[in-house]
Amino acid sequence: MTRRLFPSAIPATLAAAFAGMTLLSGCTPVGVVVGAGAVAGSAAMQERGFQQVVTDKATEVAIQKKVFDADPASFRRLEVTVVEGRVLLSGVVPTVDDRIRAVEACWKTDDVVEVINEVLVGEDAGMVDNAYDAKIEAALDVDLTLDREINAVNYIPDASGGTLYLMGIAQNQAELDRVIAHARNVERVRRVVSHVQIKDSPERQETLKRLAELAAKKDAGS
């Protein structure tokens, strides 16, 4: 999945996430600056709000670091996506124990309210399949951006082995249906799995409630 970076001229939490992402991804200075500027603008327009985007990115980087510290090989095989404290894990790892460790890493990280475990156990797909997955994500990004009836900035595609996972926040069911239709029409997509929450749904309200409870506990402990 395409990772989004942030500029350094914003809060300390963001700076930490930015530094961690630079270290883990091995990005070039030019790539970091260009990607950071673009994402800072998109973050402000997202339904979850700029500060939540920052928090989610910090959570994502913290999980990636825990996985990397435990097993660098698993780090290269896994994708981590975080939206409003909901963590999507995807990819393929060699053993069940690797899968369990990845989930444990999520739950040991601050600001996590849910872990969606889509990690498979088996052989790595290889560079060719990984390249196709990247093309799938890029193609869906373009399709959603060009559809004026979709607020594309609220969606994050994550392809793994031809399965296209969707994370984000939909304005309503009609918008989500359009997103899923686009996803199914992307070349080489074998299956579409949506973990998107609708903006005013009871499920999202429960997510926001759990986020608020976590924030209250952190405030009480500080």
TrEMBL record:
Keywords of this entry = Signal
Q: Which domain of life is it from?
A: Bacteria
What is the protein's given name? BON domain-containing protein
Q: Does the keyword Membrane apply?
A: no
Q: Which organism is it from?
A: Pacificispira spongiicola
Asked whether the UniProt record includes ATP-binding among its keywords, one would answer no
Q: Name one Pfam family in it.
A: BON
Tell me the leader sequence span. Answer: 1-19
Q: Which InterPro entries match?
A: BON_dom, Lipoprotein_DolP, Transpt-assoc_nodulatn_dom_bac
Can you tell me where the transmembrane regions are?
none
